[in-house]
Design brief:
single chain, mainly alpha, globular, 158 residues
Length: 158
């Protein structure tokens, strides 16, 4: 493009509009980042995020660090309910889906049908063919235990 090209001149409407939009976006981004930083300072104390002090819509899923440690021991010893509580904590509070899947699988291995179905749901959302294949395994296991959402999902997928 040459310097005389109307798209490149400072007075052209497209140049002015583009420049104004860039400036507006810069201001909006700075305000947004400033808001997020302020929010993080309010929510995250210097010692790190303490989930038990926050309010969530899913408040029953919030666990303290000592509860997480206690439930982890129970889940590893065979408690499906403890594994389910950990899976719900990680999926709904910390939003760490890998950790949520880990505890759902442990719960499924412990015989908890809800955990097996949760493992199915978390794996089914992934794109890897191996994950989708393993999701079907957990769906069938939950359905075999009579877990109604799994039975309905299995019928729907047939």
């Amino acid at each position: 493009m040459s310097a005389s090209d109307p798209k490149r001149t400072l007075a052209s409407p497209s140049f002015v509009a583009t420049t104004l939009l860039r400036k507006e976006w810069t201001v909006i981004r700075r305000l947004h980042y400033g808001f997020l930083l302020g929010l993080m300072i309010l929510v995250c104390p210097a010692q790190g995020l303490i989930a038990a002090e926050r309010t969530f819509a899913e408040q029953e899923f919030v666990l303290t660090p000592s509860q997480v440690q206690e439930l982890a021991g129970q889940a590893l010893d065979g408690s499906g309910n403890s594994a389910l509580r950990l899976s719900r904590f990680y999926s709904n509070v910390t939003v760490n889906l890998d950790e949520a899947l880990r505890w759902a699988v442990i719960g499924g291995e412990n015989g908890d049908a809800n955990c097996a179905f949760t493992a199915y749901a978390l794996l089914h959302a992934r794109v890897s063919p191996d994950d989708v294949r393993r999701a079907k395994f957990w769906l069938k296991r939950a359905a075999a235990q009579g877990y109604k959402p799994a039975v309905a999902a299995l019928k729907g997928s047939s």
